[in-house]
């Protein structure tokens, strides 16, 4: 179960990453954020953002609508 859900379907790069950054700032350490998006670049963008920001990627599901679960560190 995730603490916060964010729907970024229909949004293209860089908007999903901007929305993720905004949501993470409002969260407590240890909370999880579930993001859904249909931008083809989403998985690569999330992976790069995670590596840069140091949060934990709990899950990343590919498909027409991708889902990422991120834990704030």
Question: How many strands, which pairing sense, and closed or not: the largest β-sheet?
Answer: 4 strands, mixed
Helical residue percent? 25-40%
* Category from helices, strands and their pairing: alpha+beta
**Net shape:** globular
Mean pLDDT: 96
Overall strand count: 4
Task: Going across the biggest sheet, name each strand in turn.
Answer: 1-2-4-3
Low-confidence stretches: none
Cα gyration radius (Å): 11 Å
Oligomer: single chain
State the helix count: 2
* First-to-last CA distance: 17 Å
Descriptors for this entry?
about 70 residues; alpha+beta; 2 helices; about 30% strand
Describe the overall structure.
This protein has 73 residues and is of the alpha+beta class. It has two helices and four strands. It has a four-stranded mixed sheet, with helices on one face. The radius of gyration is 11 Å and the shape is globular.
Brief summary:
The chain has 73 residues and is an alpha+beta fold. Helices cover 32% and strands 30% of the residues.
Write the topology of this structure:
Layout: E1 4-7, H1 15-25, E2 32-37, H2 42-53, E3 56-61, E4 66-71
Parallel strand pairs: 1-2
Antiparallel strand pairs: 2-4, 3-4
């Amino acid at each position: 179960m995730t603490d916060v859900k964010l729907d970024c379907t229909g949004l293209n790069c860089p908007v999903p990453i901007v929305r993720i950054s905004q949501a993470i700032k409002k969260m407590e350490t240890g909370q999880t954020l579930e993001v859904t998006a249909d931008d083809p670049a989403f998985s690569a963008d999330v992976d790069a953002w995670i590596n840069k920001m140091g949060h934990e990627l709990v899950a990343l599901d590919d498909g027409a609508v991708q889902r990422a679960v991120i834990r704030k560190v």
